[in-house]
Amino acid sequence: MEAVSTISIWLMPCLIGFVLIYATFKKVATYEEFVEGGKEGFSIAVSIIPYLVGMLVAITVFRASGAMGFLISSIQPFLTAIGVPSEIVPLALIRPISGTGALAMTSDLIGTHGADSFIGRLASTMQGSTDTTLYILTVYFGAVGIKKMGDALKVGLLADLVGIISAIIVVTLVFGS
Fold first, then answer.
1. What is the pLDDT of residues 105-137, one digit of tens each?
2. Distance separating alpha carbons of residues 85 and 106, to the nearest angstrom
3. Buried b (16+ CB within 10 A) or exposed e, 96-115
4. Predicted TM-score (pTM) of this structure
5. What stretches of the chain show up as alpha helix (H) in DSSP?
């Protein structure tokens, strides 16, 4: 365990040092390249702000309008019949949209129900088996100017659905409901 800790502490500084030494050996102006990369990163960050604001407004409207509560109450009988706790639905809906929002929901579920509870385990497994599809499409496709993302959206959301279903099945089989 001591070796792993030592490696993790020294890995990044050694990697950065290696890159700097290699760049110097190849006669690359490292500081100037670093500054240029920073400028490019800043301009990309500024260009994606409208996409992020739009996505955050949509999430807020969905939750504040009561649509989330209505959706959960309308599918409650189905969820009960298949043994899925309704508390997990907001996480399943938010995870493809916002990683930070999903992490906050997961933390809240774990805080409320406990880390070793079925809901806590299911929330943790869902957090690890799905991705922030809409965020990825919004930010990365927006940064490079791709406007048509229909197929990527369909495949990404399908992958999230498979991840959610798989998480429910695996947690139910391993830990019971």
1. 899 899 999 999 999 999 999 999 998 888 888
2. 14
3. bbbbebbeebbeebbeebee
4. 0.67
5. 2-25, 30-64, 67-82, 89-94, 99-113, 118-129, 133-136, 142-144, 150-175
Q: In the numeric block, which tokens belong to residue 95?
A: 């995870």
Token couple for 77: 């009988």
**Taking the alpha carbons of 127, 110, 121, 57 in that order, is the dihedral positive or negative?**
negative
Distance of CA 85 to the CA centre of its chain: 22
Q: For residue 35, which amino acid is it?
A: V
Alpha-carbon span 59 to 139, nearest angstrom = 15
- Residue 99's pLDDT band, with cuts at 50, 70 and 90, is confident
Of 135, 67, 94, 156, the C-alpha closest to 107 is: 94
Structure tokens at 111: 């805080």
Handedness of CA 4, 8, 13, 15 (dihedral sign): positive
